[in-house]
Amino acid sequence: MSTETNAGPAFQFYASDWLTGTTFLSLQQQGIYIRLLSLQWEHRRLPKCLDRLVVAVGGTPEIANDLQAVIAAKFTADDDGLFNARLEGVRNAQLAHRKERSESGKRGAKARWTTDPRNGSANGSAIAQPSFSQWQNHGSSSSSSSSNKKKVKRVSVTDHQFDLFWTEVPRKVKKRPTRDKLQAIVDDLIRSKEQPTVEAAVEFLTAQARHWRQLHEQAGTEPRFIEHPTTWLNGRRWEDYAEGSNSRSDAPPAEFEQIVGQYLDRSLRDEFGASAPLLWKRDEAEFRAAHPELWKWAKRHRPELLTAIEPQSARSARLAELREVA
User: Fold this and answer.
1) Domain residue spans in the chain?
2) Contacts of 43 (CB under 8 A, 6+ apart)
């Protein structure tokens, strides 16, 4: 564990992620959850003792059941206590960004003020007001100085920016190639003027990755059926289902979610929480016969939904298995 625990006074809060992740929590459980997250941000770990946690969230013994439910759904335990893994990821990203900026500043200062062995003088010079003669020559030298400006270099995606993007990726494989591919896509977006800056391009791709993750979470997709992030970036897959993007021919038909919702069985999530898989209430042949065009679109763009189709006997066995584990 890092010896530095305070990454800053605040952490990023995504409203859409909160609403999605707390769908099946009561209002009291949501209050407990945000209180625990705030305590973790301040102290890094929460105590495992239930009585101490009841006091920490400012409640009474009557909230113990709700408190236990929130901990079971949202927190992990290690030798030091309880913690929410995603919040720790945000903390580590902030700490890494702070360290990166500090080291970059030190390198810049060293390069500027280190003595040049060729002439014994510092590479940099102190900032000073220009002399009168310099003001006199300003007009004649401005044109030459502008012509000698260095060509603007490509701005690289920082570790902090990549970590924020990586946090939203639903299938975390091939991290190094994903970093390289993200840089290439960011360069393309800027070169094509789809995005004005590196910051804007990374922010855009991070938001699209978040939407991508939420789609798979809502569908209960098994990780093995989710495309690799390099594939997602290389194929510009966010254009297939980007938020507010229904103008493309390969975007989901307007009635897709409504119709598919009639076939999906969400009872498992009602019973076991948002992490439970979605199952199909009817078989594949019925859906394919009733909605052939939607079937073709789903087979190309949402294959993870079709893999969830199971016969009634398999569904019954899955339900029994989940209830036994619970």
Assistant:
1) 15-89, 159-241, 256-325
2) 5
